[in-house]
Amino acid sequence: MRIAVTGASGKTGWRVVQEALGRGLEVTAILRPGSIAPEGLRGARIERLELQDSAALRLALQGCEALVIATGARPSIDLLGPLKVDALAIRAQTQAAHAAGLKRVVLVTSLCSGRLLHPLNLFGLILVWKGLGERWLAESGLDWTVIRPGGLKESEENLEAEGIVFSGPGQQESNSIPRRLVARVCLDALQTPAAIDRIIEITSSPAQPPRALADWLAS
Fold it and tell me: In 10 A of CB 89, how many CB atoms?
């Protein structure tokens, strides 16, 4: 199986690539032209392009069976950045997926996505645009899953002691989760048919007993 990962130079994206390679998947890592390729992309096929370049994106997705969208707006003086990255670029990627014959998409957004009254919206209405990106994906006709993680942690110590708290949309508002666990959930969702057409919120805690995504969905 070959998957594509956009935002592959980001802190969550390269972990998705690394975890996918560790599971024996072939990976196309899609980066912006000026991005630095992290060490975690070693072993992946690297494609450099702008997401608005529909022809280049379609070609990069050719031969892939699934797409993990790990793009996300970064703090910037450009207050239109979240609109461009978290909404318009999501629509561009769904259109390219259709054109390339790719059906399965997992999108990483954030807890509270779509909410208007939230402090994070001081940064270019970021949660509003994330919610719009989610809606466009859900209306795209693709087999989609949205993963909404809590606050993202860089630490990878004692990961096995962190149980993941799964919930449906609008049920979690705070707490955090290591990026590595987010990457693993994205890949678990790709391999779990019951995750299709679902919004899944995730945080983690040492007090939470370990539980697989498939087991939570089955319950």
Answer: 23
